[in-house]
User: Fold these one by one.
Assistant:
Number 1:
Amino acid sequence: MQTSSLAAWKELALHCARSAGKLSLARMKEPFTVEYKTSASDLVTAVDKEVEKHVVDMILQRYPDHGILGEESTFTGDPGKFDTLWVIDPIDGTTNFVHQQINFSVSIAVYHKGEGLIGVVYDPSRDELFHAVKGQGAFLNDQPLRLNRQVHLEEALLCTSVFWNKRAEQMGIDQIVKKLAGKVRGMRLLGSAALELAYVAAGRLDGYVSLSLNAWDFGAGKIIVEEAGGRVTTMRGTPLPYDQKSSIMACNPAFYEELQHYLSLNENT
Ligand code: 2AM
Ligand code: CA
């Protein structure tokens, strides 16, 4: 991988994230349609689709030979066929976008031959831009992020995303949350996995766990947490995939093993 390509991809990823965030904020002030995907708790808006198309167009205009894996499936090619794959979620936290008008983000990652190289998460409502390039550290705006605080699990503020569906129940989500909540200082549910991962990198949260996320929810956040010095794996402790659904645990390295022990006690994860 040439350094010049990496720098150019990073600039484009940052530009796309800022531009997508600006478009979301503008559209938020106007009426927009909201549809149910699978249920009343699984929303998609016309803005999600428009913003994804905006990002996909910008990427393909510059790099027509790159592939894209996006939540709204604007790109119709087979993601498995491309060496360089952009993994994007135009609005991560759509329910927050609709209800709260804060706590949503744009998530953009670049993977090359399966290796995560660039991660960008942008929160347009607070104008906070988190980014990382593999081997070059993680940043919040221009501030470097480094997880060097020693945190014990008992002192940790943990975050999770809970989908209370049949599958999650079968996987024992209630048991996991109950067990963890009794062990840590506090639990949070913010509703945008990408932003929650960025907050782990920034030390605003000490860890994030979820039974099942899509690749575009964690693609960028994983790279940012790792570059800040955190650990990110599946709940079983195996490497995270970059192109399919997975469980995830991301945390301050000080209590990774202890947290992993807790999560692995639930054999279905
Ligand atoms: P979204 O807003 O892009 O759908 C909390 O709801 C977090 O989980 C958000 O990042 C949300 O992303 C994601 N999410 C919502 N429903 C999901 C599902 N069925 N599977 C995986 N992730 C989901
Ligand atoms: Ca989304």
Number 2:
Amino acid sequence: MIIGSNLMYSENLPSTNSHAASLLRNRELPEGCVIYTNYQSAGRGQAGNSWESEENKNLLISIILYPNMINPADQFQLSMVISLGICDFLQHHTDGISIKWPNDIYVNDDKIAGILIENSIMGDIIEHTIAGIGLNINQLRFISGAPNPVSLSIITGVNYDLQHCLMQLTSDLDKRYKCLISGDSDKIKSDYVSCLYRRNQLSNFRDENGLFTGCISGVSNEGRLKIELKDGSIKEYSFKEIELLHMR
Ligand code: BTN
């Protein structure tokens, strides 16, 4: 076992990702080490957003990786591995799971998990990766105004044992990470693409030129989103260049 081989618990932290980064400044942590907490006072999301999580309700974890087999140009593979590990975990408990590109995990049209991957890159080497995951398990009410949060408990009505969920999640992440280590990046990419939210469904988008319709068809090796237009041509977008408009 790599992911989950070491577990480092703190009762509360500003942010597991920030804590991991500050620990790594002073010493090397074992690969696969999982830093986790029951409460973050300053949980961080993508694009400078904060991450809401009620105390003792959800999984808040950061995983330390040394993915030296990956070129920094291929770092999206890490995002795919983490996204798929979370989907594998969720599939034990519910259906309707998908990945809203680039790395939000959805159940039907609601967001159940967010991922914040922070890579330390030196030249052509990824020195370390901090893969932060916020996965909503038992929280029943969300107050931050995030558009569409959901938790496993809201979906199934079950109250989950967080420690058991953590073990199951790390085991699922470990399997996906080992797939990457063994060089099977083709399987990772094809599984990721088949999990994409609204893949092959006509959807509304906004880019710098305005509104248009198209179908999500895949991702490039660099992690750019591929959208097929009505005339059959394919456009590629980086994160922030494209917005999928909500379908409800
Ligand atoms: C997002 O969807 O915006 C990403 C959310 C990532 C949240 C997790 S919670 C554990 C880890 N520590 C943080 O401060 N953020 C990530």
Number 3:
Amino acid sequence: MSKAKILRNYIGGAWHTPAQAEYLDVVNPATAQVLARVPLSPPDEVALAVQAAEEAYPAWRRTPVEDRIQYLFRLKYLLDEHIDELSRLITEENGKTFKESKGEMKRAIENVEVAIGAPTLMQGGTNEDIARGIDEYMFRQPLGVTAVISPFNFPGMIPFWFLPYAVATGNTVIVKPSERTPMTMQRVMDLVEEAGFPKGVINLVNGAAETVNALLDHPAVKAVSFVGSTPVAKYIYAKAAQNGKRVLAQGGAKNPTVIMPDADMEMTIRILADSAFGNAGQRCLATALVIGVGEAHDIFAEGIVEAARTRKVGYGLEEGVQMGPVISPKAKARIEGLIAKGIEEGAKVLYDGRGAVIPGWENGYFLRPTVLDGIQVGSTIFETEIFGPVLGLMKVDTLDEALKIINGMRYGNMACIFTNNGGHARKFRYEVLSGNVGINIGVAAPMAFYPFSGWRESFFGTVHAQGQHAFEFYTQTKVVIERWLKEWSRKF
Ligand code: NAD
């Protein structure tokens, strides 16, 4: 029998084990060691969580917003206090380096800080005298029970793109983390409890597709926010909408970056090595394709190969490691298969990261950074989100050509340009079909007070995660038109 920790659900302010459930191993991808066993909660467990959230809702909604945010202040300080412990957990279950994990947790905390602005940010609006003696005003009211479904690659940050906003605005929430990286949110629930949130306001249900479907089918769940791959995002968007729920679904990505010949090449190479190979490429804002204009391509190719060759790959808890493993043997095999497919389709390998063996961590799911040149528009490797440390290169003659390629792509999560020419930068940001844009930036991740603005197949919905968009998502507007004393209607 495995001695791994058995994870539980957090429902109505208490830890709960499903009466009947299958369990999955949660595995450290650097060591292949089983860290925990996570329950795949069946629909009756989801129903318990929804019931707890429904019961907590009336009192929470009536709690003044100033009082609601006091719980978030306490949670923020607890997250600060426990940031190293939580970051370590992220590295253990996800594989990214400790520094990357800590950066992730800082972004999570930043969202709590922005949500604490609820007294201002959830205000409505007022007009006096829309007709003589008649006033019109708008409130923002919460929706009820909401659900958050998150992916494996940011187990600490992504639930916080939604959770703090949901509760700050008076909703109750059920978080369903990725079954592959569920330990971080398990620990966060201890802090939620310590922060003193009333029972049932924040709940955690572990599981996979069946658990998600139960949330999508439950009539009391009023809003669903999802982040994950595009096929699942599309499914969630359609199904939640069919069931009459408010839904936003952020999907996958394949992010292009243009390098102009006038770019600062030393800086560009350094920044793009981090963008492409950071988090082992398992980041929805990783640069996956570099389009070099003219000579920029050749200079960049030489520099990025050197950066790939010298990047220190290993266990993310070790000092100096710059890149960890990918999440699973299946992911590793898929990525290696896509590299092989790229070569078969005519791409040239400039640096091959397959077959990596990292001394001391031979059981881990490691690749080294990989660089492929001569990617063809329409090829598998051009079309497919690889979600690993693989960078494709293309060469074109003009910025217009680069823009044409980018604007023909499926996804629109991020597009970047490296240049020292303001005209090029302006043209790029104006014309590019992408919702997050970087100019001399490699990972254009919006701060918590801006929306995370995916476009095209990277996003299904109207408003996005974070900031003012999250306040919109978690509230419904109520407009009141009001007339009182008759004499106010007279002409003076
Ligand atoms: P995934 O789509 O496999 O899983 C995401 C969530 O959906 C998980 O909680 C999972 O349990 C659930 N799920 C999976 N299959 C399901 C199904 N058939 N029915 C219902 N629920 C299901 O994604 P992942 O592999 O965990 O994460 C990586 C993906 O997420 C990448 O495509 C990446 O680009 C994307 N991502 C996007 C953003 C963004 O903001 N756009 C951010 C991070 C990650």
Number 4:
Amino acid sequence: MIAKLTIENLDPAAVLGRRALVRVDFNVPVKDGKVTDETRIRAAMPTIEDLKDRGARIVLLSHLGRPKGGVPEPKYSLKPVQAVLERLLGMPVTFIEDPASPAAVEATRHLPRGAVALVENTRFVKGEETNDAAAAQLFAALGDFYVNDAFGSAHRAHASTEAVAHLLKPAVAGLLMEKELEYLGGALTNPKRPFVAVLGGAKISGKIDVIQNLLPKVDRILIGGAMACTFFRAKGGKTGTSLVEEDRLEMAKQVLAKAGDKLVLPDGGVVAQGLDKPDTRRQVAWNAVPDGWGMYDIDPGTVARFGKIIGDAKTVVWNGPMGVFETPPFDAGTTAVARALADATAKGAITVVGGGDSAAAVEQAGLAAKVSHVSTGGGASLEFLEGKVLPGVAALDDRRP
Ligand code: ADP
Ligand code: MG
């Protein structure tokens, strides 16, 4: 992985008084005109504060939701974010409604040093999602240099994440982007060993590229979640009504043969007669799920085994919950693994959590601050773990030794 320039590499003169066009990820939930979870806005604050302290004039770009094909829809307006920003920054924030208007460029030119403007949803602009040159030019006119702090959008080649980075120079990473690349990239390219990956979630089909990419790099891969059930079935186990991908049994067999001892499956799990019948739950061996029962979590024996391996690790990457963590008590295995990561971190291991649901599970367990890094990019972190080049990262300027 080639290291990218970051805002920390910029000379004071390259920042002071200049318009920083900053792509952030403010794709936040909004209800009745109010932001209901400001985590992503807070995550961008270090970059905004840094540029502000250095006297830049800051112009923020983000998408929100999925408006159809460049057509403005009021429910996807970024306007509710303006109030949150003003509260967090303790100063007024200019809202630029139409980035295509001459007034928009004027507004950015009139920003005082250290002031902040927020531009309306990038997806209201035609050509944003098709990485169109004209859309990129329109965005580029709003800044003098480019900063990408939207790791969560970096897997998409859009005008505000990719094309614009070729038009505005320098094009550098923000502090959140830098942190994501440092932790995820560090684990994949230069891990302290033992290096352990923990994979779970619903489907093996969605994670097969992650498994293939990680297998040669890791010392161990621990598998949980429904994904494990597809492996159980491939090994001839009875899986009852558990979520199994029948059409991936061949794929699972190939992975098992290739991985050998590296791949560690649960010995057993927690089954029930349905997700809505938690009182029927009991523990069974991996190959003995009764007909009509489904496996919804890993069992305490597996938690202990996984916990020991995680406890001995120096680097841990976790993607995908160990069970149906959204429905207690089937969150027990996932919470226990989160705690194992926290304990390993306290002993000096680097622990990284990637994936939207895994991040939510660690938050839910109250352990987000006890692991080294929880990625803010769901889909982006998955593609990163698959070994893919993220277009929004590739487009940024390389750091020269
Ligand atoms: P991430 O978003 O972290 O990449 P995934 O989207 O791959 O994770 O998987 C998360 C989903 O997997 C959750 O909705 C969870 O309920 C589901 N899941 C995990 N284990 C099981 C299981 N045993 N049976 C059914 N669903 C499961
Ligand atoms: Mg998910």
